Amino acid sequence: MKLSHRILGLMLGTYLSALVATAQQPNLVMVIADQMRGSAMGFLGEEPVRTPRLDRFAAQSIVFTHAASNYPICSPFRAMLMTGQYPFRNGVTANCLAIDGVPGVELSRDSRTWSDVLAGKGYSLGYIGKWHLEAPRRPYIESYNNREDRAWNDWTPPDRRHGFGFWYGYNTYDQHLRPMYWSTDAGRQEFHHVDEWGPIHEADMAVSYIRNDEGVRASGKPFALVVSMNPPHNPYSEVPERYVDLYAGHSIESLTNRPNIPPAGTKWGDHYRTWIRHYYGMITGVDEQFGRVLDALDEIGATRNTLVIFLSDHGNHLGIHDYVAKGQHYEESVRIPLIFRYPGKLKPRQDDLLISAPDIYPTMLELMGMASDIPQEVEGVSHAQLMLTGKGPRPASQVYVSTGRGDLARGRRGVVTHDYTLRIDRSDDGSETVTLHDNRSDRYQLKNIAAEKPEVVERLREAELNRWLEKIGDPWQE
Fold it and tell me: What is the pTM of this model?
């Protein structure tokens, strides 16, 4: 009998220890905006945009002021974020879509994503919003952006959701005022539309998930939630007027004081002036909905035990440098918001670390106490110790990649450092065009000084770019 009592005591002790350990496992909330440039946050003072919730959040967090989107378009960034690998290893070397009936690249079912790791650790996982890692297949589903010759949007089957047990998403669909979703148990043809601005509806769903309304996640288990909002992605008209009205009192001159914005009367200068209030309005709207997600964590008492990450997949030119969107080497494309809050663990500050997309996976897992669970195939570098202690190695550069959809040994490659940005364009005939910007003296990257400083080009190419190309398995290197 005594032995039985002892065994029961040991079993109870083990059970209680397991409960305590589970309770101490941190939650994760990741909120992603699409096409939000890194300078477009009010607290930085670089652009006249209103972001009161991000301003408050930043004061509680580590803000990476020089975070980089290595391949600044949607699918490649998202695949790097999920896998911790660069495009040539994870296979997502372009946006996920189908052309002429041929499915393009997509996130492999076999990739070991960070969400797979958390699912294996007993986490409840939820995904809300834009995924854009699926290659559409015929017969194409009924979606405004799917046509006979080209398709963008499709369903993600449950066995390709990488551990996310709660699913409320789509791949890519830009009608923000009437978005389209598949819920967890919906079949491929069982999508639905919502007559509400996407970020508002997605924040509603996120708040419900965090509160665990109707038992949408396993109670007593740690959770990880991704809320992937499409705005401030174009079309810029797809935003509630109340957010645009916040900028009605700002003169167009006050909203266009960056010297790299083309002048009025030019195609892209006029484009910028037409849509900048809407772009900023979208950002303010995303900011407000992000605040609602944070409030939900406060409401359930989970703030202190939750790592919250806010980021974007890439920036947006909106006409700057005569480019309409993203994908370029300029800061407006490459530089992204990246903010980590972990109360009691991370001391709030701003840091100019050159951190990039694949680094987020190992960094957040180590911060969450799972360094030993980071798969060997992850190519990104954990900066958790630097974040925790202020000490650790700092990369001298980050790589920039743009392959297009053809020969992967062509396209654009480059590096970004604090001092310089180097870009090399290789055409189909093998000829190259070189661009170099001095990021210290030419903050807005208005002048190409490659011809004036060939020694800098050579040094960056040999010491930084070639090293990166070898590391990431890029066929561009010859």
Answer: 0.94
